[in-house]
Amino acid sequence: MSVLVTGGAGYIGAHVVRLLVERGTPVVVVDDLSTGARDRVSGAPLEALDLTDARAADRLADIARAHDVDAIIHLAAKKQVGESVMRPSWYYRQNVGGLVNVLDAVDRAGIERFVFSSSAAVYGAPDRAIVDETVDPRPINPYGETKLVGEWMLRDVTRVGDLRAASLRYFNVAGAGWPELGDPQALNLVTIVLDRMERGERPVVFGRDFDTPDGTGIRDYVHVLDLAEAHLAALDHLRHDRAGYAVFNVGTGTSASVLEVIREIERVSGRRLEAEFVERREGDPASLIADPTRIRTELDWHGRRSLREIVASAWEAHRHRVGRA
Fold first, then answer.
1. For residues 60 and 47, what is the distance between their CA atoms, to the nearest angstrom?
2. Between 82 and 168, residue with greater pLDDT
3. Cβ neighbours of residue 26 under 8 Å, at least 6 residues apart?
4. pLDDT higher than threshold 90 for residue 248
5. What is the CATH number of domain 2-173+221-250?
6. Which entry of 155, 250, 272, 298 is 20 to 30 Å from 137 by CA?
């Protein structure tokens, strides 16, 4: 039996695939290569496929049967909040339409376990700093909405069949497990700051008047390798647990402000960074921190790597990418 990883050639997916390969689990990767790259995947076959294609469900079911797949980790999705605001219908087509095709393939191929890449964006801007999975999801952008719709779909599918599924609500993912697997896109705070630093530009900080110790937003940062390990923990849990559907926060329960992250980047890079402060973005909460009690209790998972390790690994990956390793 094997595991099919959609989006396995991307930033998070490549870490998940490498961990599965390292523990001897047969893996097949499905990726449209729009943001992923073949050279990020080793030790596993890769099938290029656009999951929104009209024939994607048939093709995916054929791939699953050919590789004796009994579990799927579904990471393939678009994830830029700003882009989702500008192109909402396209985001629904990509993230919701793609998942519909994957779930059709799951039904046809008789797949029994499913791990879904969700997001803390489903919470929106809650009225509390620390959130557990009982907090009512109220996303404030189309990206978060597509993730919540995906959760609803999985919940409903597991009610009427044999599929067992888990949704992982990621908090702020950063770092690199291996330098060559660093995030190739500047989409999180750490990589955005490193990218601007490389171009000789000041890091931009949205808001300095939040009700926090230094006035900047506070978030929960999780190392991408810890996140990848959470996917394997969820996969193993679904093998033994007969419950149909569950949701888990993937965060550390600790936090750092934007300025604290920038100071850590200064420390590892040896460069002085002078932030440019601009108006806060509408809907940004002052603090958003995971309560990881459920995932620690039920999956025996916890984030083991510190902010210092996250930033240091991201810096090494950045140096690798720009040819300074």
1. 9
2. 168
3. 1, 2, 3, 67, 68
4. yes
5. 3.40.50.720
6. 298
Give the pairing of strands 46-48 and 27-31: parallel
Cβ proximity of 45 and 4 under 8 Å: no
128 close to 180: Cβ distance less than 8 angstroms: no
The CATH class that applies to domain 175-220+253-321 reads alpha beta
- Catalytic residue numbers, as ranges: 143
Residue with tokens 């009225």: 127
Across the chain, mean pLDDT equals 96
* Higher per-residue pLDDT: 161 or 97: 97
Q: 241 pLDDT exceeds 80?
A: no
pLDDT of amino acid 325: 47
pLDDT at site 161: 87
Who's near 102: CB < 8 A, 6+ residues apart? 6, 51, 56, 57, 60, 72, 74
In the chain, CATH 3.90.25.10 sits at 175-220+253-321
Would you say 70 and 114 are in contact if contact means Cβ atoms under 8 Å apart?
A: no
pTM of the model as a whole: 0.96
Radius of gyration of the chain (CA): 19
SS (H, E, C) 177-193: CCHHHCCCCCCCHHHHH
CA torsion angle 79 215 286 263 (round to 10):
40
Contact 65, 110 (CB under 8 A): no
Degrees to nearest 5, angle at CA 308 with 179 and 20? 45
Provide the token pair at 100.
């519909």
- Would you state the pLDDT for residue 207? 95
Delimit the CATH 3.40.50.720 region(s) of the chain: 2-173+221-250
